[in-house]
Structure formats: C-alpha cells, structure tokens
Amino acid sequence: MTTAGVVFALLFYLAALVFAGGLTARIVVYARTPVPLKIPTTPAPTTARGVVFRMAREVLLFESLFKANLWTWAFGILFHFGLVLVIVRHLRYFTDPVWFWVAAAQPFGIYGGMAMVLGLAGLWARRILVQRIRYISTPSDHLMLVLLLGIGLSGLAMQYGAHPDVIAVKRFFLGWLRFSLQPMPESALLYLHLSLIAVLMIIFPFSKLLHAPGVFFSPSRNQVDNPREKRHLSSWAAVMDTERPHG
Amino acid sequence: MAETVVAPAYRVIPIIPELKPGSMGQVRSFVANEKIQTALGFPGQVVDDWHEKALAKMAELLGKYRSLKVYMDACVHCGACSDKCHYFIGTQDPKNMPVARQDLLRSVYRRYFTLAGKYFPWLVGARDLTRDVLDEWYTYFNQCSECRRCSVFCPYGIDTAEVTMAAREILDSVGYGQKYTNEIIGKVHSIGNNLGLPAPALIDTLQGLEEDVKEDTGVDVRFPIDVKGAEVLLITPSADFFAEPHIDSLIGYAKVFHAAGISWTLSSMSSEAGNFGMFIGNYDQLRKIAMRIREAALELGVKRIVVGECGHAWRVAYSFWNTLTGIGNGADDPFALQLQRQLDQRYRQPTHICELTWDLIERNALRFNKEANDPYVVTFHDSCNVARGSRMGDFAGGQFEIPRNIIRAVANHFVEMADHTTREKTFCCGGGGGLLTDDLIDLRVKGALPRMEALQEVVDLHGVNFMATICAICKAQFSKVLPYYKFDRRLVGGVHQLVSNAIILGETH
Lengths: 247, 509
What we know:
The structure holds 2 protein chains of 2 kinds.
Chain A: H1 3-32, H2 48-61, H3 63-68, H4 70-90, H5 100-104, H6 106-129, H7 131-136, H8 139-160, H9 166-177, H10 188-203, H11 211-214, H12 219-222, H13 235-242
Chain B: H1 34-39, H2 50-64, H3 66-74, H4 86-91, H5 98-113, H6 115-119, H7 121-124, H8 131-141, H9 149-153, H10 160-173, H11 179-190, H12 199-217, E1 232-235, H13 246-260, E2 264-265, H14 283-300, E3 304-307, H15 311-325, H16 334-340, E4 351-352, H17 353-362, E5 378-380, H18 384-389, H19 398-410, H20 441-447, H21 449-462, E6 466-469, H22 472-481, E7 492-494, H23 495-502
Parallel strand pairs in B: 1-2, 1-3, 3-4, 5-6, 6-7
Helix pairs in contact in B: 2-3, 2-10, 5-10, 8-10, 13-23, 14-15, 17-19, 19-23
C-alpha cells in the first residue's frame, strides 16, 4: 500500500461526495424555486414534446450559441464533445469487463482528447484576444480554462509520452469503487492529472460550471408556449387569488 | 439637452464596435420624487439601511424567481450576447453588453450568496454592495429596454430582462425608483391610463374621431365606450387616443369592427393596455394594473377581449393575463373560472387585434382597395416584446406571419429589412422598457442605430417610405428619433393604419 494510493483514494471520495452532494443540493434548489410567470423566449414550442426537442437541440447542438457566434460555437462543440469522448474512453478504468461500446470507442477517445484541448485553446484565445470577451473575463474564467487544459494536456502527455502503468491505475479505481484501497503507480503526470480532476469535481457545484444543470432549468428555454390555453400558477402567486383585492 | 444629441454614424460594415468604457456612465434617467414613490408604496427616497434592504430584497427575489436564481449561476462569460444589444452597438459602453449588465448584479450576488464570492471575491469578480454600485445599478439598469434579444443568443437562455426587472425591483424597494415609469404607474391607478387622460376627455376625443371619420368616409363608424353587453372589450394603449401616428391605427380597429359587424366597446375605467408594472419587475403592480381589465370585463359583461397595437402590453396580455387575472382559458380555480365562464371560449382570450383582423380576412369578411396604399413602399419592424415574448395564431412564429399577412392583404408593395434585424432577431426601437422619456434621449437615439441602419438599406434599395409596426412605444420612439437620422418622422405608422387606408366600408355585397 502506497501513500499515494491512500491520498488519492481519500481525495476522490471527498471529490465525489462534494460533486454529487453539491450538485444534488443545487438542483433541488433550482427545482424548488417557483416560476411565477410564463417567460419562454418566443417563438417557442407549443407542446411539451416540442420543448423536449428544443432542449435537445440546445444541449446537443448548442443551437442558440450557433446563432450567436460561429467561433465560440465551434470551439465550444470541440471542447464539450471531445470531453464526452474522453469520459467514455475513461470508463474502461471503472468497468471490468469493459463494456463493448466503451471498448469500441477507445480510439475516438484520443481524438476526443485532442479536440478538447483544441477547443479549450480556442476559447482561451478568444478570451484573451477579443476585446469584449477580455473585458467580461474574471480570473476564475481564465483559471477554469487552465484547469481543463491542464487535465487534457497531462492526459495526452501520458498517452504519447510517459506511459504510467494503466493496469495498476485500473486496479486502483476498481478497488476504489469497492472501498478497497489499492496502490497508485508512481507518475508525476498521473498525480497532476488526477489532482486537477479532483479539483474540477470539487469546484463544480460552486462555480459557473453550474451552467450544466442550469440550462435544464432555464424558464426561457424549458417552458411550453401555451399561456392562453392553460392557466399557469405558481405557489406564491396562487395565494393572491384568494386574498381580497385591495386598493 | 436634446440639441446636443447627435445620431451615431452608420457602421460602414456592421462590425462589432470598439469598447468605450464609461461612455454612458453620465446618462441617468431622472429619479422619482417622494410623491411618485410613496403613491406606489415604495420608500420616498433612498433609505438609510438601503444596504441591508437591498440584500434582503435580492434574497427574496432569488427565492421567488427561478429565472433569476438560475441566471445568476449559469453564465459562463462566453460572450455570445456581448455584441447583441442595440444599446451596446449604439453607445459602445461595455456595461451595455448584456453579460456586463447582468454582472453588475451578479457580482453582488456572488459576494453575498455564493461560497466562492464570500471567500475569494477577487477570483470570481465579486463586489461589495457600495453606494457606487447602487448608483451604477440605477444608471445601467435604466439603460436596458428588456427586449430579450440577448436571450435568443444565450446558450442557457439567460434573459437580461429578468435581471433588469429584479434590479429595478430592488432599487424601488430601497427608494431609488425611476421617475418616468413610476409616475406613469401612478397615473394608471389614479386616472385609468398611462397618459392621465380623464374619462370626459376620452369620451370627447372619441366623439371627435367619429366626426372625423364620417367626414373622411361618409360612414358612421362608431367609437363606443362603456357599452354594457358589447361583444368585444378593446384594450389599447392610451397613446392610440390622441398621439400621432397611433390614432390612425385606432381608426383602423374601429373600421374593422364596423366592417365585420362586431359590437365592441372601450372602457373608461380601464383605458390602457400598457402595463409598466412589468418594466419594474414588480409582481404586485403588474397584477394590480392587469386586474383593472378583469374588472372592466366583468362589469361590461363582454364575451371577448381584444388588445390593440402595443408590444409589451401584448406580452403581458398574452403571456401573463391568464396567470394574473384569469383572462384566458384552461383554469380550474374559482377565481379564474368566474371570468372564463363569461368569455366566449370559441375565441382566443385575449385576442390580438391583428389576429382578429387576419381571421376576418381569411374568412373573406373584409374587402380592401389595395391601391389606396400604393403611395407606400412598406416594411415591417417586429416589435421586441411581440417577437420574443408572445405569440399570435396557433403556431410558433405566428406573431411574425400574421402582421405581414395583413400588410400583404392591404398593400401592394412590401419588402423585408435584413434578416438579422427582423423576426426573433429584431432590434428594439430603442425606447422600450420604461426608457421612452426625454431625459434619456441620448440613449434612445443611439439605441436606434441598428434599426436605422437596416431601414436606411431598404430605403436606398427599394424606396421604402413606410415602416409599419404594432407597438405604441415603437411608434412614439421612431417618430422622435427618425429626424436625428435624417428621416421624415411620418415614416413610421401602424399596421392598422394601412388597414384603415384600404378597407372598404359599407355593404360588403
């Protein structure tokens, strides 16, 4: 049993707890906050089915961003879909035997890693080079990109440079899933990679990364456009109807 | 002040302008006085404990509005909205970028309501709520017309209008209201309409209109008011009663009712479609103003409620009336059912005047002499609140098609302005959201820039000489700012003004 094994096991238990707990708590807050008025940005779907399609286009194709700015859209798509492929590829560390579709997706995961880094670099370049975006950027906006770039680049560096013992890494995470501490192979790049991921998970519920759950709760996107056909009433507004009109 | 205001130059190519930080920092709408404020139940002037009160109000709103809560968290500063606001394009002040305007509030939200902002304010751009910040809120949240253009482009649908409404609600609650909007809300409560037109003056005006139309057409077109048992209650912006060019559309509505044989009435108690309660984000005011219409409908026993040409009024009517007052359909509570049982549910409740006219045209119930509009080459300016906050007809986007269909039915020459300036991407006229006041004329002229550029293009290409629109604020704003861009102020008018020109009155067979 290595010290690194213990440290990373504990770190990831903490990170997973904060990530899942923090995100759940936030989603509960969003879900419980009332929506007193109908405010879809129109033209909006007139049926619930239509809203599902609108949300799907928004989440999978970044439809609104496409209308807004092709550069940001392209870099955003590269990053997010690259990240999805990377996550799929990494599922091999958590499954034994590896699911067939995860195995099939392995080569794409590498391209995903490259796309992700390219997209992040593009987004960061815009943040630095475009005057308007530089103006609205806070230090955390830059650091978030640095963090994600760090994760992507350290991952690619392990793929193409210093290969850590991936069999041992897999043993570590399979054990971690079962609360059984396993050694972590020695590799500075791997430690960096894993530490940055833990940081990302921990800050997720407290940062602008909340855009991920937030988009699903955005009333301008998820409401059905049917205010005339059906009376929309929130809890606190409904109370007013039963009060005597005043003044 | 007005003499010094000059229109910005057209952009040679419509590129995104350079930033000019602070360029609009001195443009501040007049602050409401004590009398105006207290009439609405707000503190008369900025209270001593404004800091605590403002934060308490913010906490309250974050708990009452999911939109605000999610929008405060979700922004990633991607910049998608940053070049979309007409006020930013016209003024180049970076704080008029939607994201930067939101950040004025978000920075304080982060400081007091998030973990990161509490412990690492410098990292996430969090700010203490100081008097300077409060003043900055007042300045820049009164430079947003709540037109929702930014929300079209935001990947999370963040609507700056919601943020502006929250900020104005906070400002009002600490005694820092805007004169123009709050004074007008006071007039609605005390007199019944935004212009403060008392009932006798209104009745007089309507009689004068009957005489004018008789003289013009030889036909007895009525402008009825307070008629119990009429089928339709018309709720229209009070500017329609006397302002130019608004009044020509009112004549158009009356002619449509006359030609279709629909009995209708106005209400002296509720002679205003506009609802400035929305502009200040105050639900109580929004509801109280809308309630006047419910009361008028119940009192007059009408079967249908029709709304005249007014942008934000139609948003409130279409999107909010059912919620606020039960004017609509599909309720199962006694409050709303009391009214919904009275209204004829074969019709859309409420109905936009354009929906009514277009339905009649489709049924061949109206006849037109289109040549009457031949002097005009017409284009259509989509009003922001109609375009992005409401609908007409039975399909998404009906709010774009129906007014255009009417124009094509009554006029022979119609052309569109550039795609990126119409329909859901339309630019605000520059005077919406409670900014239609002379103390903001500088902002209004600059904010009109993108629309004026698009208009100039079709004027040059097609000889456009009539820009039709369906909003009282658009009409008033353009009448005022068109001359700054070397256009004739009479270039703007209503869709029903064109209907009025072409409609054939008298026997239809």
